[in-house]
Specification:
Strand order of the largest sheet: 2-1-3-4-5-10-8-9
Number of strands: 10
Strand content: 15-25%
Helix content: 25-40%
Distance between the termini: 23 Å
Order of helices and strands: EHEHHHEHEHHEHEHHEHEEEH
Length: 307
């Protein structure tokens, strides 16, 4: 089986940890590089969280330090949801920086993508700052990118502001660069993460999936959603699901723009399903049971792969 080469831009963050864990052990994927960026919490934490996760999982994927702030917008934080360090609920053993590759993320990504004999897939599960920098600095990189799959945006109401989802609101200018790039884009918006939850019974199944399951159970048990919803929502892994379990999703083509000038709507995703010029495929529904079964199975496989 030919594996899909994958680069991950991430801001761990609890659900990012789950998405990375699945990706690192998925038989279909070959993770080439992980780019921690600012986002849920500051870069110093997201970088360390990535290194700590790899130490816990016994993986050795190169890590490149990404952007420490948005292109234009003031920096925001989701520490109230994920904890000060981004991973409230589980004490990872502190890792050294031995996996960190020095250099600019955009240049290192460009070299890896252009050197790949197979087109590379990009996974964006945080603000899109580093991908925007890549596309602006090296526009010809598009020719060797298979697709960009993101968790971000919203069809209706937002979770950062009334009309803006957190990952896009974190760096609206970067998101607009990405959507205007000509890349093939697939998008798991906020509504999909809101629907793709796991039940308490399924949480128990996750807890019983060895050390990896216990780690994720501990983290997910400590998410504090701003709306007070007690369900365990699985946001970032939905983007991985779009790659590995597309049959669980219904998608529609749309034109996606990001509002950059609105006083009350800054960072909002304007998703036009009626457009004759679509630039993305947007997930509009998810089979909750199929997704949850896939999610739990991938955690089991990750635990087996870690041993």
């Amino acid at each position: 089986m030919t594996k899909t080469p994958l680069i991950i831009s991430t801001d761990p963050g609890i659900d990012d940890i789950a998405a990375m864990t699945i990706s690192l052990f998925a038989q279909e994927l070959d993770v080439k590089m992980i780019i921690p960026t600012w986002g849920n919490v500051a870069l110093e934490y997201t970088l360390q969280n990535t290194l700590n996760l790899e130490k816990f999982l016994h993986t050795k994927v190169p890590v490149v330090s990404g952007a420490n702030q948005p292109l234009v917008a003031p920096k925001i934080s989701a520490a109230s949801v994920h904890g000060k360090t981004g991973v409230a609920g589980f004490d990872f053993e502190e890792a050294t920086d031995e996996l960190v590759v020095p250099g600019l993320a955009a240049t290192l990504m460009y070299n890896a993508i252009m050197d790949s004999p197979v087109k590379v897939t990009l996974l964006g599960i945080g603000p899109l700052t580093d991908y925007a920098l890549l596309l602006k600095q090296y526009p010809n990189v598009v020719e060797n990118i298979e697709q960009l799959v993101i968790m971000g945006g919203n069809i209706g109401r937002g979770n950062h502001s009334p009309l803006a989802e957190y990952n896009i609101a974190g760096d609206p200018e970067a998101a607009q660069v990405v959507f205007q790039s000509g890349l093939k884009i697939k998008m798991a918006p906020l509504e999909i993460g809101n629907k793709a939850h796991v039940t308490q019974e399924q949480m128990t199944q996750i807890k019983n999936c060895g050390e990896v399951g216990n780690m994720l159970y501990s983290l997910f048990s400590n998410i504090h959603e701003p709306d007070g919803d007690p369900r365990i929502k699985i946001f970032d892994p939905t983007a991985v699901g779009l790659i590995l379990c597309p049959e669980a999703f219904s998608v529609r083509k749309a034109n996606v723009e990001v509002e950059l000038a609105g006083r009350y709507t800054y960072g909002a995703s304007v998703i036009n399903f009626m457009s004759n010029n679509p630039n993305a495929e947007v997930a509009i529904d998810v089979d909750v049971k199929m997704f949850a079964d896939w999610f739990i199975n991938k955690i089991k496989l990750a635990d087996q792969g870690r041993m």
